């Protein structure tokens, strides 16, 4: 069964790179350009994982994570934060919000796929 991953990033090139890596590994990908777009894309469908940027217009990634974790349907959906932010206080904020992993840009696709594989159960 195909696993579905939602990626949120306000940068189209980043969404494209992440999307290509994930699709190449056999995942189905839904793209959103910010937190609000991401919330709208959730619409009750089954997601196996969410990858979100931190710095986005309209709704940032950490706020998005907090909102998702309030929804019973997505409460246990693993979330990876993919960002240029590498400060420990940001990472702690992400973990406190409910993110399971933190990948810093620029990233290597194998590094991202490795994090994804660890969080998506077979």
Automatic annotation (TrEMBL):
Any GO BP annotation: phosphorelay signal transduction system
All residue ranges annotated as the Response regulatory domain in the record: 4-120
Residue positions where 4-aspartylphosphate is found in the record: 53
Classification via InterPro entries: Bact_response_regulator, CheY-like_superfamily, Sig_transdc_resp-reg_receiver
Alphabetical keyword list: Phosphoprotein
Alphabetized Pfam families for the sequence: Response_reg
Protein name in the entry: Two-component system response regulator
Matching SUPFAM superfamilies: CheY-like
CDD domains: REC_CheY4-like (cd17562)
Keyword Acetylation among record annotations: no
Lineage: Bacteria, Pseudomonadati, Pseudomonadota, Gammaproteobacteria, Vibrionales
